[in-house]
Amino acid sequence: MKNTPFKAQHEALGAKMVDFAGWYMPLQYDGLKIEHERVRKGVGVFDVSHMGEFIIRGADAFSLVQWVTANDVSKLYDGKVQYSCLTRENGGIVDDLLVYRIDSKTYMLVVNASNIQKDWDWIQSQNRWTDVECINISDRTALLAVQGPKAMDALQSLTDMDLHSMEFYTLQKGVFAGVENVLISTTGYTGAGGVEIYFDEEHAQTIWDAVFRAGEPLNIGPAGLGARDTLRTEMGFCLYGNDITDETTPLEAGLGWITVLDSDFCGADALRSQKNGGLTRRLVGFEMIERGIPRKDYPIVTKEGEVIGVVTSGTMSPSLDKAIGMGYVNWGYHQKDTTLYIQIRNKQIQAQVVRPPFYKG
Q: What is the DSSP string of 5-60?
């Protein structure tokens, strides 16, 4: 397994460590519910250094990024971030990612840990431009997600950058905890607010210590993969490998809002055809009406037992104290308030389609 720069810190905190996408990562420290609530109501720190980062720069950088991603990169300005996805010619999702515009000739793509090599190879295979340089900085980039409503208060003393004035999905670059060239963005995977902090891994100890020291008066604490999953599920955020894959399209996954079909990108023709021809399935959110926790790959059925879909994500929501999930269902069963049944072992447990986010704060 690969290690992030914070392996020693996780072990010192007594974290339960697991193999996640080939990385040695903390599942939990104090307990999933404690960490989940820490982020929803205060401030929690996630080590997400396993994520991948690519720099795309040069006069043709825009052209390459615009071609490989489904969203419209021309809408970005310096210091703006965009959620998007990489799509294949057939419309399948290579990965979902964040696109950072550093300046007009420099972009940073942040991709999922499990897809770093796949994404890198895909982008290289699609590059037909000459004045563009692609640099994979994943191995030397550390990343902490400091999330929660008190995150800005916890961190502001560490930088002259005005964190409170930053708009959602923007970035600043400057000095943080005495370290130069730190990139801070108002992004995250929790729906709780906060920032993600990118820096060279050689400064890992310095920044980790500074963050926890500055946040101590606000009861800052670590959070692991367990809380990350319950938090993102409550928001209806997709997880690659579960809710989106190479076999699903952004239109099927409810990501039409990041899929600009009147622009020219890889897979646009296939997605336009899919939209014109009509979708056959749709990713939906649902909450359990009867007692039972949905899990990945559980069948979704009608009252009569006909299989109409499959669960892709499911959990007991700590914030709502009810079981929630997401899954693909045949078209026609995707409408809000539709009654579904989740096949849990030998029982059909009633559920109802709802529109995420499940948790509205």
A: TTHHHHHHTT-EEEEETTEEEEEESS-HHHHHHHHHHS-EEEE-TTSEEEEEESTT
